[in-house]
Amino acid sequence: MATISAVLAISFLPSPARFAVAATASSSSRIKRAARFRCCAEPSSPNQETSAAPPAPQPEKPARSPPSSLLGIPTSTWSAGVAGLGFLETGYLTYLKLTGSEAFCPISGAGCGDVLESDYSVVFGIPLPLLGLVAYGLVTTLSLQENGKDFLPGLDDLDIRLVLLLIATSMATASAYFLYILSTKFVGVSCSYCLLSAFLSFSLLFIRTKDVGFERIQKFAGIQLAVAVIVALALTNSYSSATTQLKGTDDFVLEPYETEITTESSPFAIALARHLHSIGAKMYGAFWCSHCNEQKQMFGREAMKILDYVECFPNGAGKGKKMTQECSAAGLQGFPTWFINGKVLSGDQELEVLAEASGFVADGTEQSKEILQD
């Protein structure tokens, strides 16, 4: 009613008065609306903002790249298996090295024992099998990690694959270097453990290259080359130091002496000795060499008088004593060494091996036939 009365009262006012009152009423209405707008526009409390804001999205973990496979088996499984075999082999060789035990050589001949006990079986004072044991163990662990195990937290898939590739590169480079040493320093010597380790190292490099991909491997070629060069230089430096130390230990003199041959020569040994003499075969040896003495005992007294045996230290060994010019020119790396028809056989050899290498045919005696059949 009050509102109706006010409207009626305003309608009876003079025009200027009506306009003033209307302006006042209109202004009051705008003020009230503005006040209502300001009230709605005021910021809410912190609790209200938190409840109204949508939850922040959680960062997603990077998706693992699909594993590569070889013959239907994941490459991580392949590398774990191959490295596991290498771990067992180097573990056995490390035990032999640390305990001073003699290695079992599956392949006969002068052989793996000489290689495993040589100066090339140590790198910077650390046994080479021990270094291989650590390398194969690390590859096995990382391969199992890549296969889903959580041995080393904090490593993502890309880090593991790159580390495995570089380790495999270094191991393959070292194996290639050792094969070169085996072929040049141990001519005619067979080392089954060396060959097995080289095969495992090259297999690991192939598996890890297959895992990265032959197309993407070009991105890491520079790093691989740098690793290979560093490994080769380190091995060269280590073995050069070892050779210098060995040559410097000339603080003794060993006078020459005659080795007594106590065995009697068989007809086969005598016939073989005559054949070797006829074709110009030579046996190079040293008076202090136990393997040379064993070779002489195989032939016996009579046969050794026929053979062309070259003593490389006729004046003794040690300080101030040098190898003969003929032996130095032959490039000998150990004793005994046989030169037969252009072939080089290192180490003491069975008579049957010498007969086969020289093309010797038995004279038909019953004893000769029995020896060849055995």
UniProtKB/TrEMBL annotation:
<protein>
    <recommendedName>
        <fullName>Vitamin K epoxide reductase domain-containing protein</fullName>
    </recommendedName>
</protein>
<dbReference type="InterPro" id="IPR038354">
    <property type="entry name" value="VKOR_sf"/>
</dbReference>
<keyword id="KW-0732">Signal</keyword>
<keyword id="KW-0472">Membrane</keyword>
<keyword id="KW-1015">Disulfide bond</keyword>
<keyword id="KW-1133">Transmembrane helix</keyword>
<dbReference type="GO" id="GO:0048038">
    <property type="term" value="F:quinone binding"/>
</dbReference>
<feature type="domain" description="Vitamin K epoxide reductase">
    <location>
        <begin position="72"/>
        <end position="212"/>
    </location>
</feature>
<dbReference type="GO" id="GO:0016491">
    <property type="term" value="F:oxidoreductase activity"/>
</dbReference>
<feature type="signal peptide">
    <location>
        <begin position="1"/>
        <end position="22"/>
    </location>
</feature>
<feature type="transmembrane region" description="Helical">
    <location>
        <begin position="160"/>
        <end position="180"/>
    </location>
</feature>
<dbReference type="Pfam" id="PF07884">
    <property type="entry name" value="VKOR"/>
</dbReference>
<feature type="transmembrane region" description="Helical">
    <location>
        <begin position="120"/>
        <end position="139"/>
    </location>
</feature>
<keyword id="KW-0812">Transmembrane</keyword>
<feature type="transmembrane region" description="Helical">
    <location>
        <begin position="186"/>
        <end position="207"/>
    </location>
</feature>
<keyword id="KW-0560">Oxidoreductase</keyword>
<dbReference type="InterPro" id="IPR036249">
    <property type="entry name" value="Thioredoxin-like_sf"/>
</dbReference>
<comment type="similarity">
    <text>Belongs to the VKOR family.</text>
</comment>
<keyword id="KW-0676">Redox-active center</keyword>
<dbReference type="InterPro" id="IPR044698">
    <property type="entry name" value="VKOR/LTO1"/>
</dbReference>
<dbReference type="InterPro" id="IPR012932">
    <property type="entry name" value="VKOR"/>
</dbReference>
<keyword id="KW-0874">Quinone</keyword>
<feature type="region of interest" description="Disordered">
    <location>
        <begin position="42"/>
        <end position="68"/>
    </location>
</feature>
<dbReference type="GO" id="GO:0016020">
    <property type="term" value="C:membrane"/>
</dbReference>
<feature type="transmembrane region" description="Helical">
    <location>
        <begin position="219"/>
        <end position="239"/>
    </location>
</feature>
